[in-house]
Design goal:
262 residues, Jelly Rolls, alpha+beta, four-stranded antiparallel β-sheet, single chain, six-stranded antiparallel β-sheet
C-alpha cells in the first residue's frame, strides 16, 4: 500500500503486476465478449476516435461480477486514501464515501491525444478523481497502450499535446494501472488491428457528478446483490434531494431510497 501510494503521489501512477490471475482474466474477457455491442449506436457529437474504438459502457449494469471487481478490499483502500472526504460525517471514516464515476471496457483504435480526466487542472496533494485500469490483454506501443508524462499531475496545467517525453505503460493481462486523473495521459494508435481490451474504472469524490445516472439505471437483479458499500459506491448515498421538503443534504449514510426509475 505504501509503495503504491508513494508512486501515485510522486510520479502520478502505479502499476500492480498480476492483480488478476489467468482464470479471472479469462472470466472477465468472456463477460466482455458476451456484452460487446458490435452495432452500438453512435449519437450525434460522438468523438471521431470513439467510432473506431470498441467500447462497452456502464459495466455496472451488465453483470454484478464487475461491481465485485471494484469493491475489492485493495481497490477500496487505495481509492479511500486519495478520494475519501474526511468530513463526510454520515459514514465512519473507515468506510469509503467516494463514488464510481464512469465504468466501461475499451479496446483502443485510434491514437488518443494527451489530456486530463479531472477537467480542471490544479496543484496540491488532494485528488478528486482517479483511474483504475485492469488489463485483459497484452498492452504494447504497437496496439494502443497508455502513455503518460511523469509528474505532470503536479503541473496545475492542461496537457501539452506536443510533449515528447512520454512513458509507455505497457503491461500483461491481469496487470492493474492506477493514475491520478490530473496526469497527462493518452494512448498510442493500435496498429496491429487486434483487440486490446481493458476495464477502465473512474472513481471520484462524492460531490463530483457521475458521467451516467447509475442510481436510476441499475437493473433490479443486480441491485439486489449489492451490499451497503457497493450501493454507496454506485451513488445511492449521495443522491440530491428533489427539494427542501425532502431533505437539504445530498450526503446520506446507508439509508437507501426505493430503487429509482423501476
Amino acid at each position: 500500500m505504501n509503495k503504491i501510494i508513494k508512486e501515485i503521489e510522486n510520479r502520478g501512477y502505479s502499476i500492480i503486476k498480476n492483480f488478476l490471475n489467468k482464470k479471472e482474466v479469462n472470466n472477465y474477457k468472456k463477460l466482455i465478449f458476451k456484452h460487446e455491442n458490435k452495432n452500438r449506436r453512435l449519437y450525434k457529437g460522438t468523438p471521431a476516435r470513439d467510432t473506431t474504438d470498441k467500447i462497452i459502457y456502464n459495466l455496472q449494469n451488465k453483470d454484478y461480477k464487475f461491481i465485485k471487481l471494484i469493491s475489492n478490499k485493495i481497490i477500496i483502500n487505495i481509492a479511500k486514501y486519495f478520494l475519501n472526504d474526511p468530513f463526510y460525517g454520515f459514514l465512519p471514516n473507515s468506510k469509503p464515501n467516494y463514488i464510481l464515476n464512469f465504468f466501461n471496457a475499451r479496446s483502443s483504435g485510434s491514437k488518443l491525444d494527451l489530456h486530463i480526466d479531472c477537467h480542471i487542472p490544479f496543484k496540491g496533494k488532494n485528488i478528486f478523481m482517479m483511474q483504475f485500469v485492469f488489463l485483459l490483454e497484452k498492452s504494447t506501443k504497437k496496439n494502443g497502450c497508455t502513455v503518460v508524462v511523469n509528474n505532470s499531475h503536479k503541473s496545475g496545467k492542461f496537457s501539452n499535446r506536443s510533449e515528447k517525453k512520454l512513458t509507455f505503460l505497457e503491461g500483461e493481462p491481469g496487470d492493474l494501472i492506477i493514475w491520478d486523473s490530473r496526469l497527462w495521459h493518452g494512448t498510442t494508435a493500435n496498429k496491429e488491428k487486434k483487440s486490446r481490451w481493458a476495464i477502465v474504472t473512474t472513481f471520484s469524490s462524492w460531490f463530483i457528478k457521475q458521467k451516467m445516472d447509475m442510481p436510476k439505471s441499475i437493473p433490479k437483479k443486480i441491485y439486489k446483490k449489492c451490499n451497503n458499500i457497493e450501493k454507496q459506491l454506485l451513488g445511492f448515498s449521495s443522491i440530491p434531494p428533489k427539494n427542501e421538503n425532502e431533505r437539504i443534504n445530498t450526503k446520506r449514510g446507508y439509508i437507501f431510497p426505493k430503487l429509482l426509475g423501476k
